Batch of 3 targets.
Target 1
Amino acid sequence: MIIGAPPRRGCSPVAESEREEHEAGKVYSTISEVSGPLMVVEGVEGAKYGEVVEVETPTGETRTGTVLEARRDAAVVQVFEGTSGLDTTSTRVRFTGETFKIPVSMDLLGRILDGKGEPIDGGPEIVPEDERDIYGSPINPAARKYPSDFIQTGISAIDGMNTLVRGQKLPIFSGSGLPHNELAAQIARQATVPGEESEFAVVFAAMGITHEEAAFFRREFEETGALDRAVLLLNLADDPAMERLITPRVALTIAEYLAFDQDMHVLVILTDMTNYCFAPGTRVITASGDVLEIDEIVEKAVETAADGGLREGSTEITVGTTDVRTLASWDGDLTSNDVVAVEKIEAPDRAVRVRTRSGAEMVVSEDHKFLVDTEDGPEMVEASELKPGDELYSVRELKVSERVPTYLELLLEAEDEFYVHPTEGFEEVVPGAEGCQELSEFARLATTVTESVEEVMEYVDYVTAGGKERVKFTSPRPTEDVMYVAGLVASDGTVDTDRGFVMFSNTEKELLSAFEEVVTEEFGVEVVETDDGLRVNSRVLAWVFGKLADPKTVLKMPRELVAAYLAGYVDGDGHLRDGEVVITTIDRERAEDLQLLLKRLGVPSALRERDGVYDVVVSGYDAAELAGELPLRHPEKAKTAASMSSGRRSSKFDRVSRRFGKLLREVREKYGVRASDLGSSSTISGIESGERRATRRLALRIVERLEEVIGDVEEVRELRELAAGNYVLDEVVEVEIVEYGHDYLYDVTVIPDHTLIVENGIITSNCEALREISAARNEVPGRRGYPGYMYTDLATIYERAGCIRGRKGTITQMPILTMPHDDITHPIPDLTGYITEGQIVLSRELHRRGIYPPIDVLPSLSRLMDEGIGPGKTREDHPDLANQLYAAYAEGRDLRDLVAVVGEEALTERDRRYLKFADEFEKRFVKQGRDENRSIEETLDLGWELLAILPIRELKRVSDELIEKYHPKYRGKREEAEESGEEESGEE
């Protein structure tokens, strides 16, 4: 638990000195600016960096914040829960005089906490032995003791080749889609100090993870018993961004207590310690169901920014002052996240146009990322690396904050044109409100007596727009019948708000009758028959149906109203044939809006253009299911829809992720399940090899059969999610480098997931989180927009690890970093490399070849390895053996590149031996099971077995004495001699 104020017994004396300099507890209402997640409080003297503040909102809610910057007469405060709903006039801020503290005790072992250190495992509150400031200091260099003791992780590529030493800082550099989480969990489970197991503990902190990842870590620790000697901190992606910044500090504060107060050896694992832009016109979908163009969002934020934004060369970054909330992913489903910053960048000379099978078309910068399917699951890939045939993840069912507007709300935009005639009881409720009222005045008066829109509508007798026109609303909001008619009007009708009429033209009598019946019963107006169709002369209804006929209005409504609208649209101007449902329009934007409406029902579609007409096409099983859900009233179309349940076929939108086949093979091998137990052996084999793609329905049948055989195990649940998850794979059909015809590119920063939904549901990336606070503070940016003090900030985390003279306990740190674009020169991994003592590098190439853990030992390095291995620590042969393995593998890798040019037949016998060594080294030494825990002796013996592939004369980095003692050739003879000697001794 984070403890802020008031001061309690056991707190450090620092808080008391702060109270002397700054009147703790004083409340300020002098807020001059609210910007993104920050607020500026004026007139504050003596505030301290990291000081806890309490923010009281205008509604009385209390939020927590911290001082990010203390100026002479002002303080910049970061609000944990965000600044939504705060203003500069009625928000109050109380400075507590204390920094963040957490309770520490041995009771922390075995507990699961959130990123602030508060229990989330259902257990009791932590009973503190002390309370510690989370902003601890790095270890004084003069007090440091040089690390020199071996930590065994059970992973050969680390223990044998890049040994972790007690007190070391050894980061793992990974990339998007690589199994760093699995590796982190395995190290946490297996790591130990040989001979001192009872004094070893793990503090594991995961930052910005999804709910699925959090469940994985909890399961890994709880089911294996590793939690008994560990503290697990989980900061979720939907937790406040500021919490993510303090999570590693909370973890290290706990580690310092265990190490330096309780004399334990503590391994701290931190995962994950770690821009991309659109052309104007790119459509972004909000949580409320609005569809906005990205340049509209950015330009509005830039215009309203107090200082015009933060300029960085040709880049303008500003904190988003709009309250737009976008739909973001990927947690396996949609989430609603805040736009906290926007970016406007001077356009490059060229960009990338990406077009997909569904008809989505996007122009983006070359480094913009899309979520692409691979056999290892979703992976972010730059636009410049996309190629036709790649499959982008897109949302299958678009979920928004559903809401049905009242009829009065639909009329409010033209409020001065309409008059409300209230019921007789209105004068009694609102004294002085006599006669008809302008719509705006009626709404004002009504809301003084009730906040319920339904109750407001109860006071409406009828609405007029001048003249004799009179509209009486039967229901306060549009019904399914009304939305069906709105679909008819949108597809085959006319709305004229200037002249005040609604017309519907069609030759089908059933549809004409439905239009007349609904309009008459719901609104009490006359429907006139003309030569062109049915006509309603009503300015009120013209405005109502002008709104309701727009798909953008319908997008926000509940599923049943969306289905009713689409039914009217299909009945009016759609057709069902050859197993397809086709909706036609002459407007591309309308077609794209209809695609989004279909996704509200979980139905993917394709957009086809022909002679200036756009067809939105739904095919296969999706067409049959859509036809079954739409309440069609056209006799022939309804009859066709009923028959579409037979003869259904799949479409390419039915494909499941390539990950399904690979995981299925792994599960069958693990549990010994025969392919014939799950269906046709050839079908299962084709799916597992990737030669055949499973559809959602086939995949679900396979999962059901698999569950019958092995039960509802975790792998079965993962396969089920792959088969039925809320995604569709949208194949890339064209990637083209184009000349960019605009002045700027645009982007937004969405927290915490840093993804957004664009066009017809495509999932794509956005700016990185670490820049948002820096931008909000108007700081001069460093490399790639990151704050210039980031090196110092990282050092305050990394340098808290080590050994201290006179203290038995130690802190060893393994931070895990995901490198954007696999770029090791990115500021975060680059600066981390300067501060820490080596790096473990994960390889995407090894991962693609099925090698786990995919550790590339060549660029990996442990600078303290020599201090922690050898006689009395690991084994006498360890240093020379590691050098020999490294040299042999490096030569084998070089020969592998040569073979690609000249062919293997051109190699000598010696070269073939090295080539074989490299292959076997990866398959047997680097590769191991996710639950395989190798001792250091097993690792070293395996290394010698691999060296036996090479002629002994090639082992130039190992002494003859070590070869005679450990080489399998001699070791086998020695063991035989020893066994023979034992037998002779027994005979005597």
Target 2
Amino acid sequence: MPELIRLQTPDFEFSVWANDISQRLRVYQNTMAHRASANDVQPSYELRFAPAAQLSNAIEPQGLVADGLDKSALDESDLAENDLVANGLAKHAELTLNSPLFFENTQYQFEWVFFSEVTHARLTHRSQNVNEAFRFAPEVKTARGVVPARLTGTINTGNDVGWLRLPLTFEHNGKTQTQHIAFEVLPTKMALHQDLPAMYQAIDKVYPLWRFSLVEKTEQDAATSQHRGHFPLMWLANFAALRARFEQGLKVICAAPHSRLQPTVANIKAVNLKGRLPHKLAEKVKQDFANGQYDKRYAVEKKQLSVDTPENRFIKMAVSKSKRQLAEFEQKLRQSNQAPERQRLSDSFLNELHSWQQPLQKVLGQSFLKEVGTYTGLSRESLVLQQKTGYSAVYRVWQELKFYLDVFGNQSSISMKSVAEIYEVWCFLCLKQILEQDLGFELVENSAKKLTQNDFFEYQLKDGMRGAFRFKRADGVTARLAHEPTFNKASQIRSYLVNQKPDIVLEVTLPKTANSGSDSSEEKQFIWLFDAKYRIEDVKTNLENEFIGKPTEKDLKYWESKTDIEKESLDFTIVDGVPDDAINQMHRYRDALIRLSEPRFSKLRLPESPSSKIEGQPAKKSRPVFGAFALYPGFFDQATTPNPYAAAIEEVGIGAFALLPSQNGPSQNEFSQTESTQTKSRYSGHQWLLEFLQAQIGTAPNAQTGQNNEAMYPVAGMAERLYVQEAARIPYYGMRQVLYPDLTMTVALGGQRGRDNGYFEQFEQGTALWYHLPQSTFLQKFKQHIAEEIRYLALAS
């Protein structure tokens, strides 16, 4: 296992190992090269340290470190803006690398070797799984020498991308020290800062806050959010970032609480009255004494300093609510984390939540707050809250916690769901967008309201047909788009042995009047399945970009050894494809799902009623899936390049579509309101899928183009058009599949040129055995199976 990088500080030596990452680096560089035309910003690769680390040496065998760490050559002018100098060593908050080191789905080994005697060391990551992956070995003295203390562990990045933070805590000389090291885990199949933000934007429009997670390996900076409500995960992330400002402001307030002169009325006996009395009060006392009333009390108004001000009431309310929110958060998380199979959260994270409450509890125990009443709001703007030291800081933090301000910069970080989950839901919403914007469907039932919150305060989709989007088109065609529905033995479309759960199901239903089959009273339904696969494998194609197969190692090495110009002269290309098991899974889905329908009399045209059913007869079985396709993040210019799986899709209804956010302009907004046809001048990320769906179910009727447009079929012929496709006409060996048992071809009898009179006399006498027509008539316009289904011939002479 080669060493990637080794850093030395006065306290420890930090090393990272991994298996050969050259393959992932090559894929990443190819991905970024494809994006170069659409993204002029050069990516930077950094290690971040908090607090800033004193780096005395860096050993990087592959020349990966860009920042020089030569102590003798260290000059203050060479330091980065956020670097400091202490004890002759540069204190780096960031260390720039020449090349990326950390990628998704890669296993890394980390080791800290301590130079001094360290009694204990551990990671305090929020994820229990990350912490448990590390083991501390104390210093051991042997006959051969001293084996220093070390902390070692491995992390598989999986599909988690973003900043992975390793919060190291170690004890030395009775003191606890911390050193956080963070690095960015990059995806190899898409651009982290280009494709993912476009996906986030699309998901946030339909499923606000779904993408956030409480605890994952990595975190990302919180970007723009239009949500205005209470979401505990976002509140916690913001509180963690703003906590220092919040506590510092409270310290200033406790040291010098705001007070103001407020009038108070006290009933005092005459003997206790002091000082100069108002004229009216003096006359009143004098009159009462004359009447012999010596024990009477008099209302005296005085002004004294009081801390019971609206500003202090606000402070008490903000501290109380924050304390209560943290306490409830901790209680629910500890309760949810008790089950052994659900222990996602580390003890250090839960203890950190508890420690955040201590300063707030201390503030609530201040004597001056005991004199402060209940907050009832502010009757007018308060200059104290806006300008006074301490109060203004707390007031601004509270507003950010309350409203989740749009721009957080690098201040707050929050975990996201894995990029595989993000890609899957984005593909689901991309299909929704195609149905609405390109195929003319109108949303009639929205599943966005059906998000549920789990025990870890994370939003989850309501999967299955109950949480499906429902659409309707002007021509009466309806559609359902479902995420992860389960097909089992009890459903109408069932799997007899093993439950099947495809990622995306598109079900299209034609109106009864549009069916031209033998039973027009029965609705026709067509199903297409899609599985989002966040995986890519190299595939070999010919010069027309038609799929050939999986390349050999020799093919790959030969391809990589050529320049871009030399590759153009080769008789094959290497492009992005899906793994073999993804295609096999599509075959499994289509083969496993069977539709059960009630048997009915075929000759009678009866209305829908129980009497039209055949009692005691087994259900009629049919195969409902007209196509199953993998969706993968392959990069192609789909406006000019054919789909490598197009031939297989046409022949057998199995294949794959590359799907990535399009780059139609500077906004990089996949779901912006644009024309239905993709802009040819920029990269188109879903044109293959769009063209396929247009060919299958057409678009909305358009008075300007009419029905002569090939993409706009009459609804009455849609079912027939789907049934006669090559993929839908494959019978079992030895059997035939017939759509119309009495299919008749009407055709005019050809001219006499080149044929004798006997040929025509046989037709007139009814003894003709053959009718000749050009072979291209069926090979080009129709398929061979249609010619084989013809039973009758009607000739016009």
Target 3
Amino acid sequence: MRRRLSTRRAHRGFLLVGLLVLLVTGVLIFAVTVFGPEAAEARRKQQTEAALAQAREALLGYATTFRDSIDPSTVYGYLPLPDLGYSATPANNRNNNVGCQHEGCDAGQSVVPAGSVFANYTVIGRFPWYLMGTEPIRDGYGECLWYAVSGSHKRTQPVSPMNWDTLGQIDVVVANGSANLASTLTSVHDRPVAVIFSAGPPLPGQDRAPAANQVVDQCGGNYEVANYLDPGTAGALAGVTNYFGGSTNNASGYTRDETRTSPIGPDDNTKSVATQGETYRRADNTLWSGACPIGSNCALVANDRGLRLTTEALFGAIRKSSGFRTDINSMLDRMVGCLRDSFAAGVPFVPQAIAGYASPADKSAGRIPDNGCYGDAVAPLHYFANWQDMFFVAQPTAGTFNVTVDGLAQVCSGVLIFAGQRGAGQSRADDAEQNTVGNYLENDNMGDGATTTTDDNLTSFVNPGLTFAGPGQLEIASPTQPLQQDIVRCIPTTGSVEATSPQNLVDAYGNLRSPLATYDPGTRTLTLGSEGATIYNGISANSLYGCAWTPEVSTRGNGFRAYFAFQFMGIDGLGNNGFVFAAVDGERNGTNVCGAAGSHLGYSGNNGVTPPLTFPKIGIEFDRQRNSGFSESADITVSNPGRNDPTGGEYDYHSAIVYWGHEQANVTDSVTRPQDDDNVHGFPTTGSQGSSPRPAPQNPGASSPGLAFKDYRAKSDFDGDSQSDSWLYHVRVEVTPTRNINASTAELSNTTFITHAWIERDTPTSANIIAAMQNTTRAMSQLYPSAAPTLSDTATVYDVAGSACGTGCPANQTCGTDNVCYSPALRSVRLGFTGSQRTQDQRVLISNFFASWLQ
């Protein structure tokens, strides 16, 4: 029994040993699998790919904010220089930008040697991680990344034109078993604008030890590109190098693309780089990617792995930027305004000729011509020269075009088409291709087959045809707006401003007086006021109004930035009247609305002839007469209503933000005519609306930042001549809405409007701030941070009540708990100017009016 027990124990021991052996074997197999050389290499490659992708996203972030945060005077599309080397010795420091001169910054505008940042010089160096706002980005081997930027797209010495057709100057080549590397690109449009490199482990001939006069504390090593990027041995990659031999640190070289015939230069000077990772050279000098053929004698000659950034990817990201879309759509707005005014003035435009293209007999067509009205010097700054190739115009030889924009058919004196990004089969690489209209314009532009029969834009442009169609706004590329889709605008038959004012003003003496609002499309100048048109000359007060409005409304709903200049002109003694710049609800106000005379300034009140301005609305008042206290007047001829204008010597002239006062009669404020108090300062007074859940906004009063004294006196009041003009003033207005939706109680949904206005007198010392005010595509807080607005106010505007819900509300309206449909206030906006006279005449010249609608 004792022997059997021992045997049983022995068997049990062998079993444990066997299990232990199996366990150890499994652990070893797992360790080899997970921690072995192949697995470790796979993890390094994954880390490298993740690092390259992170750096690429950082570059795209830089590109999409370039115009907003880096250089507002330059268009989108440019990329930073690499980190070319920081040195404590100034003469050796190539990162010499003000504010960023250390490791991880990009190189400066002027580096050593100067030629390394000349136009069309591609530059290779370390990835500028600090500039990108990251820590050093390392590959799977612990090396910091490197970066090549095409000479066509680097931010220094920028190349023009810069747009989504600008070619990169880098070619990507691969080993394919032959003695030479072959390009991977199927089109010149595929050339990268940048390549991010992982250098991998050093190869023979590469020295990554620290170098004298170079500070590389974070990444370590040195700035000699050839010590990191391959090949380590000259000539090992059939003449291809991922660096520029012979330049400082082998970092830069001339790479201008010469596919265009002018200006003349060397042919095809692009920089070829190898980015595929391990490349082997066999004894017969053939090159192999990834591995050598079995049984062959090969040497590893390159291990750089790269991630390219193409123009398509670059502008795919840029197109998502609201700033870029604001720029393009603002340029379209400005072009349409200029061209329609030219037509209205009897001066049709002459299209720019396209080589090899002849206009059909029924139209004059080509690219948009040069014109200072929409050139580089006006907002959006510097866009015209860079994007002119994308704009096509046409005007009929006789009659009009039928242009369908966003589904609405319009009768037009011309058409403006903005060509989208390249579609299938389109190439715009050289002069011949850029003179081929079919490489830009589309047929079946709406992409709905035969549903829309007027959208064969290409056919109508190159053959007889009078119909065009497309969306009116550039949007983010999507299934509803493919990247190649044409953006189409009607050039209307009327001018860009429509005036509303009695046309036949005859005074008591038989004299015909000019209307109180006239627009000259030739000079693009609006005049408010009329000499001699007063009640003292026998003209009815009901006729002393004048308003002017944009014919179209904007439904973008994201706010706007507007600019204009004005001057009170001296006639018969500089009149004590004024005017209002107004943004009114486009769904409730047409181009025929205008208010009453006298202190109403055409903004408030009812003149009895035209429809009055209907709230919601926002105005900027420019007032030259104090009407103190509050009073009402059923007859403007008898008395001028008091507007609560502030008292005090300096407040005879002031500007203020105004809304619309009371929406109904109010006992507290003694308002019996609620339509007449829209420009009464301080109304509705605090508490006057009781516990109303939907109070109207309060017009700012004298003690608020929404009202300010401005000296609109005649310049020569200082020398006693009352006949002269006032100073010239520049005005910038920004209105920014924020929606506040009440999901359970629709009638309590509202929009918060922040309104800022800058009013600046024209002086030699105000040139810089005026230039910023004119750049309507960017916020003043970005362009001129130190310039505080003259007027500021924040107002909560509740949604507008419509009809009863019934069987449902119209689109974009919501039914409230009170069974009434509500729509967002100022969802549709019309801009304009209002003015009036009473006992004194005036003449106000308003010029250079333009607004950018935010995307």
